[in-house]
Design goal:
The protein is α/β, with parallel strands linked by helices and about 220 residues long. It is built from eight helices and eleven strands.
Length: about 220
């Protein structure tokens, strides 16, 4: 999953980004509302963690601008404003959740997990494909009872493929949802990581459930 963190308090922004990257999310961040709107105009994210008190343009302006063209991207507001009226205004403007500062990073991670999974699986904690299981809370994959040792990118690819089982996922889509903005769109990185993930899955399962359909993309399916 790809996340944009918009927070002007740099130490907090760095802490959020580090904690989410440790959970194998791809994270971009900025500290200014104008920069956030520029990001959102050209990049695609699964979720935006959005502070309200921002320089350049405040968080409500960023949210309303996003919702004029995009009703799908999840938005989680962060704010020191705890009044009910402030929360209602944010939710009415199109936010999906509202977390009051100060907060624990574990709670932020749980809310992000709930929001990103809600689109696909109605808050299921475990994703399955045959004998392969992905625990979205622990951020770990298992072949039967055996835990798989995956890199951060392999974890992100596997989660996204399991969320989209049965349909082709293009390299461009994986770049949008699993990589941050630093990746080169013409990079060979996708194929390298898919190949490495496939070797680990074959070793653990006896087969690779992710197949490359020429001209369509990668598809995850249970073995027949």
């Amino acid at each position: 999953m790809r996340i944009l963190v918009v927070e002007d308090e740099r130490s907090l922004c760095d802490a959020i980004a580090r904690s989410l990257r440790r959970l194998a999310y791809s994270v971009d961040y900025c500290h200014d509302g104008r920069d956030a709107m520029d990001f959102l105009a050209v990049e695609r994210f699964d979720l935006v963690v959005l502070d309200l008190n921002l320089p350049g343009a405040d968080g409500m302006t960023v949210l309303r601008t996003l919702r004029e063209v995009d009703c799908e991207t999840k938005v989680l507001i962060l704010s020191a404003r705890s009044e009910v009226a402030e929360k209602v205004a944010g939710l009415d403007a199109g936010a999906n959740d509202y977390l009051t500062k100060p907060f624990h990073l574990e709670e932020l991670a749980a809310r992000i997990r709930s929001l990103t999974l809600r689109r696909f699986t109605q808050n299921d904690v475990l994703l399955t494909c045959g004998n392969l299981t992905f625990d979205t809370k622990a951020r770990r994959a298992f072949a039967g009872d055996e835990a798989l040792s995956l890199t951060r990118k392999e974890t992100g690819i596997l989660e996204y493929m399991m969320l989209n089982q049965g349909r082709p996922v293009s390299q461009e889509e994986l770049l949008e949802h699993v990589w941050d903005s630093s990746v080169n769109n013409f990079s060979n990185s996708i194929r390298v990581h898919i190949s490495a993930l496939g070797k680990k899955l074959r070793a653990a399962l006896g087969h690779d459930p992710i197949r490359n359909r020429i001209g369509e993309g990668y598809v995850m399916e249970e073995a027949e």
